[in-house]
Every structure is written in C-alpha cells, then in structure tokens.
Amino acid sequence: MRPARALIDLQALRHNYQLARELAGARALAVVKADAYGHGAVRCAQALQGDADGFAVACIEEALQLRAAGITAPILLLEGFFEASELALIDEHDLWCVVHAEWQLEAIEQTNLKRPLNVWLKLDSGMHRVGFHPADYQAAYRRLLASGKVVKIVLMSHFSRADELDCPRSNEQLAVFQQAREGLAAEVSLRNSPALLGWPSIPSDWSRPGIMLYGATPFEQAQEVAARLQPVMTLESRVISVRDLPAGEPVGYGARFVSERATRVGVVAMGYADGYPRHAPTGTPVLIDGQPSRIIGRVSMDMLTVDLSDLPGAGLGSRVEFWGRGVLASDVALAAGTIPYQLFCNVRRVPLIYSEA
Ligand SMILES: *Cc1c(COP(=O)(O)O)cnc(C)c1O
C-alpha cells in the first residue's frame, strides 16, 4: 500500500474547540465547511458532537451530509441559501440560515414554512463581499421581524484583516457594526479564529472558529494564544527510493535543484495530487524520522524529493512528516506562499486515519 496518509487526531480537535470556547467566553459554532478544512466533516462533527454548541458550513449540501450522518446539533449555513427552493430543505432539516441579500429577504417573506426560521442577518461592515449595507441593516431586520417567518435573529458580520494584529481595520469594522445595530436587542456573532485568538475585546455571543479548531494559527507571526493550539492533521509518507548523486547533478522536473556537493536524495511518495503544494520551493521544511530536513527540487504529482545528506540514519522506508506537530502547517504555508487553510483543504487521495488519543 502506498505509505502516504493523513492522521487526524480527534482529541486535539476537541482540545482546540475547548480553547475556542474558553476564549469566546460564550457559545461557539465549530466551522466544518469544506469537509472540515480537509479533515473530514462527518468524523470531525461526530467527535465534537456533545461539546459543540453547533456547526457552521458553507452550503446546504454540506449541511445535509451532516444531517444524514446523524448530526442533530444546530447547523448554520454561512452563505444562506443560493436559491429560494432550498428553503423547504432548510425547514425540513431544521437548519440555521445566514441572510445577506435583499432577494433572500423576499424569498423568506414569500415562503411557507412549517417552523419559523433562525436567521443570522449579515452586515457588510467593510469586507465588501456579502452582507447588507449599514444604511439598509435596520430595515432588513424590521422586514424579517415583520415577515412573521423568523423565530430568532442573530446579528453577524465578518472581519477582513483580523489576522493582522497591528491593523486598525477590525476596530473600524466593529465601530461600523455597533452603529448599524444600534438599538437592536439581539445576539451578536463576530469572531472567527483570528478575532478569537487576537482580539479579546471584540464582543460576540456566538463565535465561529474554523482554522484554529484544526490547530493552525491564522497569524503569520508568533502569537501567544495560538501557541496553545494542537495540530490535528499529520500529513506523512515514506522514502521509497534513494539516490546518491555527485555534485552538479539535477534532480526532478525542470532541473530546479542541482546538487552543489555530493547529495543523498530521498524520493518520497507524496505529490501535488495529494495536496502537497507544488509551489513549495527547495528549502521547505520537513521532518525525516523526526529530524529536520528540506524539500529539494520540484514537487511532482506523486513524488517529491528530500535531502538526506546530513541524516546518515535515514534511508529507504524513513518516515517523512510534511506537516503536523513537528512541522507546523503555517510554516510550510509561509514557505510555499499560501496559508494553512489552503494546505488542509487541498488534501486528497491520501487516506484519512482517525485516532481519539
Ligand atoms: C470560514 C468562516 C469562518 C471561519 O473562519 P476561520 O478564519 O477559519 O476561523 C467564520 N465565519 C465565516 C462567515 C466564514 O465564512
């Protein structure tokens, strides 16, 4: 069997959720969209069921997958419905629903539901993707109330730069939110992972942690609270071939690496078809039998090459960790010009192997 695999530590997931909740000092919806950032939404939701106040996903397809697996906790659709016909399913499966646009308001006004909806009314406080303009927010709230179709409205918004700890933008967005919601007596949901970890003064009755549940920091620099997270995924494989090259020999496609000295090259069963980033340059960190080393040459579809020159004990069959507790996904992401979110979401083809302890 090909040795590439992703180990998923569900105990670490629960630890990170508890940390999120402790920081929130309030309820927290575990964000398990995009197949729990590549960690397997059903297994992750099952592991958190009982602890989590609820879950959040991007769309109804993801929510129905969780309901089909027996998840009965609240599930919020972060983008609401994409067409009005989804309202019947939202009703049937008792889902919570973001409303971010006028046409969604209209659809709710015109629908006939068995049960009144739990709606999260989204304000565009400055990210400028989705949400109501501040000037239209109160009117949207009143229309929802007047529709008679809702049982509860949570006021929500989303930060664009909470991962930049010295940036004033989050406080500006908070001020826009506070002004837009003036006088509305309702619960509030503002904090994603970077806001939970780095912005303790931002109020939120319902936080929405995503990346931190999976144990990766959303910040580029070291941050005290983020250091308490435990990585959930370990992406690993083994050395399947070894080459001893003299100086001056190229390795891999495009000869992107040329040995400067006699070099021992390990070929590892891991490639971009598994989700390892093709853009990871020579020097990107890996652990080989627990010892730090580096990628050399270009990452190909099914294989990549690592430097064994300074690891005399390493060879055929050596275990290579690409990210996990020994090599942080955030460091790999930085080297490869991306973010840990994308590294995790891209993981595919490798089996996900779950452990509780
Ligand atoms: C994805 C998402 C989150 C989670 O963000 P993280 O940075 O992963 O914590 C929270 N809120 C909304 C609206 C999202 O789309």
TrEMBL record:
Catalyzes the interconversion of L-alanine and D-alanine. May also act on other amino acids. This is Alanine racemase. Its EC number is 5.1.1.1. One of its GO terms (molecular function) is pyridoxal phosphate binding. Its cofactor is pyridoxal 5'-phosphate. Keywords: Isomerase, Pyridoxal phosphate. The keyword Isomerase applies. It comes from Pseudomonas fulva (strain 12-X). Pathway: Amino-acid biosynthesis; D-alanine biosynthesis; D-alanine from L-alanine: step 1/1. The modification N6-(pyridoxal phosphate)lysine is found at K33. GO terms for biological process: D-alanine biosynthetic process. SMART domains: Ala_racemase_C. It comes from the Bacteria. Residues 232-355 form the Alanine racemase C-terminal domain. Coiled coil: none annotated. It catalyses: L-alanine = D-alanine. Substrate binds at R129, M301. GO terms for cellular component: cytosol. CDD domains: PLPDE_III_AR_proteobact. The active site is at K33, Y253. Belongs to the alanine racemase family. The keyword Isomerase applies.
